[in-house]
Design brief:
Blueprint (H helix, E strand, L loop, with lengths): L12 H9 L4 E2 L2 H4 L14 E5 L4 H14 L3 E4 L17 E5 L6 E5 L4 E5 L4 H10 L2 E2 L12 H6 L7 H4 L6 E7 L5 E4 L13 H4 L8 E8 L1 E2 L3 E9 L2 H15 L3 E8 H10 L13 E9 L5 H14 L5 E4 L3 H12 L1 H6 L3 E3 L2 E3 L5 H15 L4 E7 L4 E8 L7 H17 L15 H7 L2 H14 L14
Parallel strand pairs: 2-4, 3-4
Antiparallel strand pairs: 1-2, 5-6, 6-10, 7-11, 8-9, 8-10, 12-14, 12-15, 13-14, 13-18, 16-19, 17-19, 18-19
Helix pairs in contact: 1-3, 13-14
This protein binds (2R)-2-hydroxypentanedioic acid and zinc ion.
């Protein structure tokens, strides 16, 4: 029998945590810890000495101060929907997971100032709902929005399906409240649009995956709610056409484009096969499809403009067929098909994920060279790329038979080859999922020595004892 992981902690540590949080909020039992030790896809596992579940910023600060005194490593965790293991403890059984789920209040909303302040453990859906109740839009949108939490979204600088218009998560932040590595609280919850007072410290924490500080609350930028929205699903002969169609759409609609997603035919087939209520939107079958959405704040006119655009695009040979969602229900079905595509594919086998970006114009070359590369590396895999082509971001995913054992060495080989290709095309080895525990070696190999040195110096300055999420982003 394995010794209880709580024995890996300094004497008195857990008792002191229980005095701060109450004993029910300190989990040491293996069964209670289990959901915090494995990622959503059951692909990345670790072992925690304990799981701590604070409910307030002050409680987070008190337990981090305690951890700092005892040099106990703390792994912050939100909704546990990350895809690179950034919220999962390592295998040592010596780290404690700090779950932010208990900090789940929307503290205030100002519809005229267009901001709201939410605590880290609010689900993204709860933040969207609070914005909507105030007649505004919080535009970050991801497949996991019912489960993922805003603190995790910001710590990971999440992307999603609306980046082309509204930017990544970090672009939606006006201010942060952060618990620092020594347990002090930095109250930086500003709500100003303009604030040029020296270094923009919040940027350090956004995308730092909990390795520089623990985000406990954020002031978030709200936008106008679009009054008319048009959703298009189009069949395309080739990835080149997607890039031309995007340009064609940009010339016509500019910033009204809120999503522009590309999917291989096999991804759509998997969604149709496994998602209840999802039907193929077109009679035409094609190797590639685009799901695009345009939105604006005037009450009407966009639908007619979109129909005219589709006619012109068809004439120009940029698509084979297309449909416009005729109702909210149809729109919801199209988005379910796209956003639950990855879980649908997972029903057919194991997945090697590759979240990468290149300049938009290089997408066709990425697909052509990537397909050739992966066919030789993974002959029994099916390539099923999809993603946010409007942002130059593809999920170059490979589906493998369920029976395959010991995926890790193959995953690493594939990741390395894909990263080489991406680097050759001037792209990024992580577009929106982050580095976590899965890509540190690639990062170390591909960032310049100067960049790595600066990153280490920032880490050293903010967390000199390396207690905040050690081992993510930078190798230990
Ligand atoms: O499963 C994936 O690789 C991608 C998940 C997510 O980023 C998406 O775009 O659906
Ligand atoms: Zn994505």
């Amino acid at each position: 029998m394995q010794p209880a992981t709580s024995q890996n902690l300094p004497e008195g540590f857990l008792e002191a945590c229980a005095a701060i949080l109450g004993p029910a909020r300190v989990l040491t039992d293996a069964q209670a810890r289990a959901p915090y030790e494995v990622d959503f896809w059951q692909a990345i596992t670790g072992r925690a000495a304990a799981v701590l579940r604070p409910r307030t910023t002050e409680e987070v600060a008190a337990v981090v101060a305690l951890a700092a005194r005892h040099k106990v490593a703390v792994v912050p965790q939100g909704g546990n929907t990350g895809l690179v293991g950034g919220g999962i403890p390592d295998a040592s059984g010596r780290q404690v997971v700090l779950s932010l789920s208990g900090l789940d209040r929307v503290r205030s909303v100002d519809p005229s100032g267009e901001w709201l302040i939410a605590e880290a453990g609010c689900t993204l859906a709860a933040v969207q709902a609070a914005a909507e109740a105030a007649g505004r839009l919080f535009p970050l949108s991801l497949g996991s929005e019912g489960t993922c939490q805003i603190g995790g979204n910001l710590a990971a600088n999440a992307g999603g399906v609306n980046v082309i218009r509204y930017g990544m998560a970090k672009e939606l932040v006006l201010g942060l409240e952060v618990v620092l590595a020594d347990g002090r609280i930095w109250e930086g919850l500003r709500t100003l649009r303009k604030d040029n007072t020296g270094y923009d410290l919040k940027q350090l924490f956004l995308g730092s995956e909990g390795s520089l500080g623990i985000i406990t609350a954020a002031s978030l930028r709200l936008c106008a709610r679009p009054r008319e929205r048009v959703t298009v699903f189009a069949a395309l002969p080739a990835p080149e056409t997607a890039v031309s169609l995007l340009r064609h759409a940009k010339d016509r609609f500019a910033e009204l484009i809120s999503s522009f997603e590309l999917m291989a035919g096999g991804c759509v087939d998997a969604a149709v096969a496994h998602l209840e209520g999802v039907r193929h939107p077109l009679e035409t079958r094609a190797p590639w499809y685009v799901l695009a959405e345009f939105a604006w704040s005037l009450p009407e006119g966009l639908a007619a403009a979109t129909e005219a655009w589709l006619g012109d695009a068809l004439e120009a040979g940029l698509l084979l067929d297309a449909t416009i969602a005729a109702s909210e229900a149809q729109r919801a079905m199209l988005w379910r098909m796209r956003e639950e595509m990855s879980p649908a594919m997972r029903r057919e086998g194991k997945i090697i994920r590759n979240d990468i970006s290149v300049p938009v114009g290089s997408i066709p070359e990425l697909i052509a060279r990537g397909e050739a590369l992966l066919r030789s590396l993974v002959p029994d895999g099916r390539l099923l790329p999809f993603g946010h082509v409007g942002d130059g971001n593809l999920h170059f995913n490979i589906l493998l038979p369920m029976a395959i054992q010991d995926l890790e060495p193959l995953r690493e080989r594939v990741q390395h080859a894909v990263c080489d290709l991406v680097q050759a095309l001037g792209g990024s080895i992580s577009a929106e999922h982050g580095i976590g525990r899965l890509k540190q070696a690639e990062l170390a190999e591909r960032k310049s020595p100067i960049e790595l040195e600066l990153m280490r110096r920032v880490k050293q300055a903010l967390d000199p004892d390396n207690i905040l999420n050690p081992g993510v982003i930078l190798a230990p």
